[in-house]
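Incident log, support desk, overnight shift.

02:14 A customer reports that sequence design results differ from what the structure should imply. Their input is reproduced verbatim below. On-call engineer (initials T.W.) acknowledged and began investigating.
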């Protein structure tokens, strides 16, 4: 409070009375009764309460942590702690981040560094900025039970997990990121709560609903009886991260599992509320949406939700099939053909309403009108790496040349690229599924993991069981920590990423082409032509197959602009990247090396 004291307020319609118990683990701690408001709320200002004090709310059924706790120093089962949200920010001039021109970097704070803390991660910010990253996408940090986890089992939406540091450590990380020109986006989970440590039912059963079926637990009540305070809880949370932590945006997890049939969908309201909380700062809102609903990124005046971008799994799935030759399970509907990559570059989603064999239903909605930057593309992310037997990185599953070639497509293509931590230097650490739950729950998690992986025919046999890691084993977690010494060890791929990001940023044609077209050149080869001003075009040729000799070359997109000829500007086969070299180009001999990507520009 501005004049001292702390204001406590909680929605607890299931209880006749509510009080706040200070120092609940210490005998004789004092208790203050909260005054009832309308609609099930209770509140009071406690004049002698100060930051650092621990407390619980005492209901008719017992004492429980604050549902809107700002910090849980002993985890979700322990008392809440009063936090002073003031902080000596130095980012007053930070404008936020734009919706175009980003290179996103997904990271998990617990495994990004050996220490797994905000402070340790902050030491790497200068190098991430030097590489050319513009926005960090942080995997969820809402507190969860256990000593390690991905964060998608969060139960304290307002409390940054104590595993990575204090709330001020997070604020300091964001402040330092801004000083280095980096935006920070937080992955938030508004579709379910974790299976342990969630006490919301004690306050009100109306936090949840039985009207829908959720893949990961009880659906949240956004449109049923008494849903108003539930909506307020999540809207306040979205604004909280933006205003109190100066975050530059949100990534909304699995929006297809956020059920709301009301006239003003909660996802749209969350996005509006977050933007309002940002004030003059620009923020960047991304959404994960498995059914690929384009309305999420359409503007409000076109009946859209006004998000800035959508994760594009189609691109990833095509790339994985092309690079590994496997199209089982949810890769069934992809062939990894050149046309898939051309269509993805030109139109974003490959599935915009067609029949989808794997799901036995139509998938996607029309999205041909959407700008390319709306689609977030990636070769790796936390889910897709872990959805394999050993959590292997892409460079471990394909040839070095193919890996370099598709990295060029990722970083020079028209969509918004995203890297996963360590991808830029071919990290040897796997990224496995890990979750530290109580023993009974941990057994169920292992069983669930085996069942999930069994959709892959190659992993469904009993011979594979010994190789499926135990998510509750701490070693599973520690094996995933990055070794930054590998930046030097694998310096070729690291330099390749830096050079490509620089080319994307500094070359106006790659950065903002007037238009784009593409053509298939062979069974595993294709080109993209980026059109610039007055014939200042660029060619990106990708060949994932054997050496390609085009003589003749009856493809009009290979023709140079009038009065000019093509000049080779960049090759993924440069020896400095670990490549085997590139045949000389004289303007006529189209000899495209296998497992390579080449960039051409016109010259007089």
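02:41 Re-run completed on a clean worker. Output:
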């Amino acid at each position: 409070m501005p004049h001292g004291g702390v204001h406590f307020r909680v929605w607890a319609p299931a209880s006749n009375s509510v009080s706040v118990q200070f120092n609940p683990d210490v005998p004789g701690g004092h208790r203050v009764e909260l005054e009832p408001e309308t609609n099930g709320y209770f509140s009071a200002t406690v004049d002698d309460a100060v930051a650092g004090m621990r407390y619980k709310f005492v209901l008719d059924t017992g004492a429980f942590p604050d549902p809107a706790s700002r910090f849980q120093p002993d985890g979700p089962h322990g008392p809440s702690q009063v936090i002073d949200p003031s902080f000596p920010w130095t980012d007053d001039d930070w404008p936020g981040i734009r919706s175009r021109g980003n290179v996103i970097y997904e990271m998990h704070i617990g495994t990004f560094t050996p220490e797994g803390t905000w402070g340790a991660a902050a030491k790497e910010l200068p190098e991430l900025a030097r590489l050319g990253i513009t926005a960090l996408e942080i995997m969820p940090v809402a507190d969860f039970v256990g000593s390690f986890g991905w964060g998608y089992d969060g139960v304290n939406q307002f409390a940054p997990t104590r595993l990575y540091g204090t709330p001020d450590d997070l604020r300091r990380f964001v402040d330092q990121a801004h000083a280095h020109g980096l935006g920070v986006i937080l992955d938030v989970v508004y579709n379910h709560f974790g299976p342990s440590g969630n006490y919301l039912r004690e306050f009100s059963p109306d936090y949840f609903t039985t009207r829908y079926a959720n893949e990961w637990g009880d659906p949240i009540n956004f449109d049923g009886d008494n849903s108003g305070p539930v909506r307020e809880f999540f809207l306040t949370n979205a604004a909280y991260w933006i205003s109190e932590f100066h975050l530059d945006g949100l990534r909304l997890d699995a929006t297809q599992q956020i059920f709301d049939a009301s006239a003003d969908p909660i996802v749209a309201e969350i996005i509006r509320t977050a933007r309002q909380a940002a004030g003059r700062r620009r923020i960047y809102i991304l959404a994960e949406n498995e059914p690929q609903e384009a309305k999420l990124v359409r503007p409000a005046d076109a009946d859209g939700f006004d998000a800035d971008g959508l994760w594009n799994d189609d691109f990833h799935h095509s790339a994985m099939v092309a690079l590994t030759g496997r199209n089982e399970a949810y890769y069934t509907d992809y062939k990894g053909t050149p046309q898939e990559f051309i269509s993805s570059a030109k139109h974003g989603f490959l599935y915009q309403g067609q029949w989808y064999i794997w799901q036995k239903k139509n998938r996607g909605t029309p999205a041909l009108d959407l700008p390319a930057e709306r689609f977030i593309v990636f070769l790796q992310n936390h889910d897709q790496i872990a959805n394999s037997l050993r959590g292997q990185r892409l460079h471990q599953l394909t040839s070095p040349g193919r890996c370099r070639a598709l990295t060029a497509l990722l970083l020079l293509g028209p969509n918004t690229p995203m890297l996963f931590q360590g991808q830029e230097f071919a990290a040897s650490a796997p990224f496995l599924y890990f979750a530290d739950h109580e023993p009974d729950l941990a057994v169920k998690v292992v069983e669930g993991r085996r069942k999930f992986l069994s959709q892959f025919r190659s992993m469904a046999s009993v011979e594979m069981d010994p190789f499926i890691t135990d998510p509750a084993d701490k070693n599973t977690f520690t094996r995933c920590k990055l070794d930054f010494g590998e930046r030097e060890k694998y310096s070729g791929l690291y330099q390749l990423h830096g050079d490509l990001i620089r080319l994307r940023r500094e070359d106006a044609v790659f950065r903002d082409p007037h238009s784009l077209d593409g053509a298939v050149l062979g069974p595993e080869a294709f080109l993209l032509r980026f059109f610039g001003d007055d014939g200042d075009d660029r060619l990106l040729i990708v060949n994932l197959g054997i050496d390609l000799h085009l003589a003749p070359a009856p493809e009009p997109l290979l023709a140079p602009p009038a009065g000019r000829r093509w000049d080779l500007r960049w090759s993924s086969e440069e020896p400095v990247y670990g490549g085997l070299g590139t045949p000389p180009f004289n303007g006529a001999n189209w000899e495209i090396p296998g497992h390579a990507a080449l960039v051409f520009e016109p010259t007089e």
